[in-house]
Amino acid sequence: MQNGTTLYALDISGASFAKACGGPCTEGCVALARIGEDAWALGDSKRPDAQPLRFTTQELDAAGIDPARFGLDV
Fold first, then answer.
1. Is 33 in a helix, a strand, or coil?
2. How far is residue 51's CA from residue 46's CA, in Å, rounded to a whole number?
3. CA 37 to CA 29: how far, in whole Å?
4. What are phi and psi of 35, to 5 degrees?
5. pLDDT for the residue 23
6. pLDDT-derived band at 65, boundaries 50, 70, 90
7. Burial 54-66 (b: 16+ CB within 10 A, else e)
8. How far is Cα of residue 73 from the mean position of the Cα atoms in its chain?
9. Which of 62-68's residues contact partners 24+ apart within 8 Å by CB, and which partners?
10. pLDDT tens string 22-55
11. Is the pTM of this model over 0.70?
C-alpha cells in the first residue's frame, strides 16, 4: 500500500496525463496519470508548472474521482 512518502518518491517525469473537462475548460482542466500500482498524480493542465498532487486508488475513490472519466483503467 502506498503512503504519502512513497507516493511523492515516485518519478513522474514520464507520466502520461489524460484530461477530463466538464465544459469548455476556460478555468482549468484536471489531468490524471497512473504513476504506479495503486498510485495516481492529479494536476491542472492550465498550470503545468504546479506540482501534481498524488493519491492512492482508495483516496481517489473517496474523493469521487473516477479514472474511467479520464479514459484510464483502475
1. strand
2. 12
3. 24
4. -115, 5
5. 62
6. very high
7. bbbbebbeeeebe
8. 12
9. 65/32, 67/32, 67/34, 67/40
10. 666 555 688 999 999 899 999 988 888 899 999 9
11. yes
